[in-house]
Amino acid sequence: MTDVVWKYDVPSKNEFTLDLPTGYEVLSVQSQRGKLQMWVRHDTDRAKEPVKFCLVGTGMQLPAVDDDQWLRHAATIQGMDGHIVLHLFEARKSYKFPVLTNGGSFMRSE
Q1: Domain limits, the chain
Q2: Phi, psi (deg, nearest 5) at residue 9
Q3: How confident is the prediction for the chain on average, in pLDDT?
Q4: Which pLDDT belongs to residue 62?
């Protein structure tokens, strides 16, 4: 067993997939040098699996769900001195995002 903490880039889009070893744990998501980063604890000896994540801005609609058990909150991230607040969720099964009406951005335009 090789238990480590690795850093992953978090793309600035509504949904993304990362290949992570089974049994991983999201520790933190923060901005570092102007980019969102996610720190994940995992065992490098385990097999990898694709994991889907979604970013949702405060006040924005969450993806459509069949029940309330399939989205797991992983982190809340504040940027621009708190003017932008994003929430990172891990998708536990297939999901569909609502049609975006603000030009494809995960942030609300004001």
Answers
A1: 3-91
A2: -70, 140
A3: 80
A4: 80
